Amino acid sequence: MSTAVSPAERSPGLVLSWIGATDHKRIAAHMAWACGLFLVIGGLVALTMRTELAQPGLQVLSRDHYNELYSLHGSTMIYFVMTPAALALGVYLVPLQIGAADLVAPRLNLFAMWMLLGGAAVAFSSLLTASGYPRDGWTEFLPMSNDTFSPGTGTDLWLAGVAASAISAMILAGTILATIVLRRAPGMSMLRIPVFTWTMVATCLNVLFAVPALLGALGLIFVARHTDIAVNPAAYLNLFWFYGHPVVYVMFFPFVGAALEVLATNARRRMAGYGPFVLAIIGFAATSMAVWGHHMFATGQVTNQYFAVTSIALMVFAGVEYLDAFLTMWGGAIVMRTSTLFALGFFAQFLVGGLTGLFLASPTLDYQANDTYFVVGHFHYTLFAGSMFGLFAGLYHWFPKATGRLLDERLGKLHFWLLVVGTNLTFFPFFILGNEGMVRRVADYPDQRGLADWNLVATVGSYVVAVALLVFLVNVVWSKTLGATAGADPWQGQTLEWWTASPPPRHNFESLPPIRSHAPLLDLREAESE
Amino acid sequence: MTRFGAPLFGWAVMLALLAAGLLAWSGEIEGPWLLLAASSVASAATGFALGLAGPAQGDRRAIPDISIAPAVTAAGVLVVLVAFAAGRWLVLLGLGVTALGLGGTVRELRAQRRELR
Amino acid sequence: MNAVLPLLAGDTAHQYATLLRPYALILIAAFVVVNGALLLAAVAFRDRPGRVPWPARPHHRVTGVYVGVLVVLAAMLATLAVRSEDRVDAAATHPAFTITVIASQWRWTFVYPDGRHSPTLVAPVDRDIRFRLRSRDVLHSMYIPAERFKRYAFPDRWNTFDLQFGRIGTFLGECAQFCGWNHAYMRFTVRVLDDAGYAAWSTGGAL
Q: Which residues face C129 on adjacent strands?
């Protein structure tokens, strides 16, 4: 282990410390607060959209404003909330889980954080321009996004902001991966790193090999807007979706890792099927790079059958993860904490998203469902009712480690149940709406009873979601200062982060236990009880 | 080659197999195949690079606490990116600020190395 | 506009319904089995005073069997999907005629073999009709929910496909790819007529 020396006691001012802190824990915390703010912005936008869609006709928004808002919602949630949140979880946990003092290249990580925050500010600033926020969704297909159909500086600012967030993601993925390779504590072979760290390996690989395609796609829009070169729309689609599919697994892998660690810890048992899980997650990540064509089934420009087969193949890898969750619980003694509930909710609800994904993997069925509310329901189940539940499981689990205080359990359970009701009430009707032919990215829909009724239900559900998130915000703010003290290991954890103090010192560890498996603290406890 | 180089090569092999599958199924050298093949080449290269790097064991390493240089560098890069929307002349300003930030980083790294000696 | 959305309005819709049955069965069964198992485990192994978790042991056989089942299921679903796609995307051997569809911001124009331009898609029932679809500006997508079918319209190339309308009536058509300000209202009507009605229309009659 490298010897870490604490810095001299010349404490910088608060502002300087806030701008310049290179501690991976501080970087992750700042990213988390930023993502939280962006989540609130993206969520308020969604509430406005749902309020408009509650009834047919245009009551609240003009067509133009609705189009700005739906684009703002998607871009914010993907580029500025879920992708950075996934990476931030890794930025915080990976060094702690592998026994390292910090990530590789701390200054580079701080640069990446500022690129994210600055990029978000730049992208949001397009709202203030005369042309407004670009209206072509987070996908910004050409030719719609070129200067003929989207004139003005709004789109250019959006391009700059999203490019900055992409650079940020690539840097963090690179340093996290390098840290896992180069900074593991003695005794920690690759097959002894915790499950969450393995999911970060998969996440980082997907970011490193997919995000360059996003930069390429953004570059194509730039070329179309600022030169005379004619850009092939199908080429843009291929390049964008080559990024656009792996990124959804970036927004999934860390959260399945978090959910599995939560389940194992709270079931008070070693995780089942570690070996198969490692094979599955790497296979999942690799195969996920070869499925992007399923977003383009209805274009007639890709080999539909190849992409149908690879997309369906993903179910084998996902299934192994579900089996491991089941086998870990089977024979455990499961403590039903808020984190456990969210982990279970993650698996149960993500399954809806996953199965509807299998549905969409078949071109025949996709020709109906693509670009309708069916697919909107699909990805909200995977990303919100799924991944975000996994994120909450991780937050309730690791908040005490980061802050030294426990989140309130009663507020936590209220948050959970409200969110279960809210997400299902909002997103299940989307499948029905899509089946009835309601297309997506529309401010209004045909005035038919079926469509209006289910839209109203979904809007009610979205307000329940808002209340649930408010409860969580209250919990965080209250618990951060007034919550019960956590101590180093409130949950009887199994991995190295629970060995050190809560919150950990700057250099993370004063000492390390012997490492002989992926659950060193569990090994110690079992040895002691013999 | 470190033990980690091997898994990354495994990733490259998987991507190459998927690319071969697409080529076989579609029968043409088309965009998708090129994309897949490129990413598999890239990952093989990464694996090779990581293999060369090797794990650094038992170094004495300094970790910085506060560094303003990254924020400055980021500000410079963002100004360059925004220049295409807000005025091309901003590229010069942005590059200048970026240079400032990078210079600051180099100074800090040198001081850090001196500290360790 | 008050259009009816019957499920089986043509060949593509028929293929959709045919595939949906086994597919939905497998997916719903998977949901019930997997979530049921997780719920069972969560309830059966709740922490109770004095409960000791079982020691860990490898699950090679269970994992192997389970992966085997998943591979078989995936192969089944993939085969169903591929076979169905062959049928849906098959080119008709003798299409009755070709309709050229021009999508533009924000309307649809259907051009018939005699040169007639129509904002409404008028078609004879039970005939294979070839469509050649293109855009005049940005990407659009021609979507007929009753046919369970959509296809993108590109500005730089033609997309060709065949449809058959199996039921007489009036159906909704929409644009399914965001195309700007009026995307939400870029709809069209599909009027499917019997042979006599279509003959009357195509010789200059009104609908």
A: C97, C163
Residue B95 falls inside a structural domain: yes
Are A442 and C183 inside 8 Å of each other by CB? yes
Q: Beta strand pairing status for C128-135 and C159-164?
A: antiparallel
What pLDDT sits at residue C2?
Answer: 32
**C165-190 per-position pLDDT tens digit:** 989 999 999 999 999 999 999 999 99
Asked whether the predicted pLDDT for residue C76 surpasses 70, the reply is yes
In order of their start, the domains of chain C are 1-45+63-207 (2.60.40.420)
H-assigned helices in A227-303: 233-244, 246-250, 253-266, 274-288
Burial class (CB in 10 A: 0-12, 13-18, 19+), C168: middle
Mean residue pLDDT of chain C comes to 91
Residue A22 to residue B66, Cβ atoms within 8 A: yes
User: CA angle, A178 as apex, A516 and A291 as ends, to 5°?
Assistant: 100
> Among A164, A190, A287, whose Cβ lies nearest the Cβ of B4?
A190
Cβ of A156 within 8 Å of Cβ of B36? The answer is no
Conformation bin of residue A57: beta by default, left when phi > 0, alpha when psi is -120 to 50 = left
- Asked whether the beta carbons of residue B35 and residue A238 sit closer than 8 angstroms, the reply is yes
DSSP state of A82: I
Whether C8 shows a pLDDT value over 50: the answer reads: no
A445: containing domain: 21-528
- Would the CB atoms of A270 and C56 count as touching at under 8 Å? yes
> Which range of residues forms the domain containing residue B90?
69-116
- Closest Cβ–Cβ partner in A325, A362, A439 for C81: A362
- State the residue for tokens 């203030």: A128
Nearest residue of C to residue A295, measured between CA atoms: C152
Summarised one tens digit per residue, pLDDT across range B11-47 is: 888 888 888 888 888 877 777 777 788 888 888 887 7
Chain A residue with Cα closest to C90: A364
- Parallel, antiparallel, or unpaired: how do β-strands C188-193 and C121-124 relate? parallel
Stated pTM of the model: 0.94
Q: Chain C residue with minimal CA distance to A323?
A: C63
Decide if B61 is inside a domain.
Answer: no
Number of domains observed in the structure of chain A: 1
Structure tokens at A190: 């690759």
d(CA A48, CA A432) in angstroms, rounded, equals 21
Which residue ranges of chain A lie beneath pLDDT 70?
Answer: 1-12
- Give CA–CA dist A449/C140, Å, rounded: 27
